[in-house]
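G., the chain you wanted modeled:
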Amino acid sequence: MRPLVYPSESAMFDTLTRPHVTAARVLPYSHLESELRTATLWGCPDVRPYQNCEIRVTDVKLDDLWPLALYVLRDKLQFAVDLRQSLLAHGVDPWGLPSIVEFDQDGGHHRIAPPVIEVSPETDCGCPRPLLAIVDGLHRCFAARARGLETITVVLIAGAAYPLICRPVAWSEVAVLDTVPEMVRKRVFRFREAGEIARKFPEFAAKVTEENSHYFFFRNLQRLGSSGAR
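Predicted structure as tokens:
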């Protein structure tokens, strides 16, 4: 088997042409669960936030999901739609995945997994508690919702050991943009500076910096095909 290219989604977005998928196969669920339980934090690669979590694949209502970014990119939305059409020709629906899918596309070998959703115990944002936060797969969820789908298949995770990097926002707050915005328009970041993390989580005081503080608790899901921090 050819080696996987990480992050696959980033590589796929180098071109705006319709993706040409030549082969696809669904991996056993055990692969998905293993990759999630061994996923690490962006700012601390020896910490596994999902190691002891409850993890399951299920269908959820798109209107019940909460984005974690204030924007989506127009070209990535189109790519999500185009990739779906290409994978459907091979009997795979990326909006209804039971596990990781590996596929060959435009000369590269890639992965895609169900959107990753965390059950988040938010307490101070005016949102329902607990809520379902979109950790990975926002463009797919946004595109599916925009096309009138009511549900999507996700991998649902409960009991993460560390907080999400930002506050959830409503669908109505997410803007469709042509380019990546400046930092203040990307997300409602949970921590404003490194000192906040160091005081609340003293075990990370020696590792958190002003440069990595915004994304310190970001879940590194590149082995699922995620494009990484944005």
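The chain has a mean pLDDT of 88.

Shout if anything looks off.
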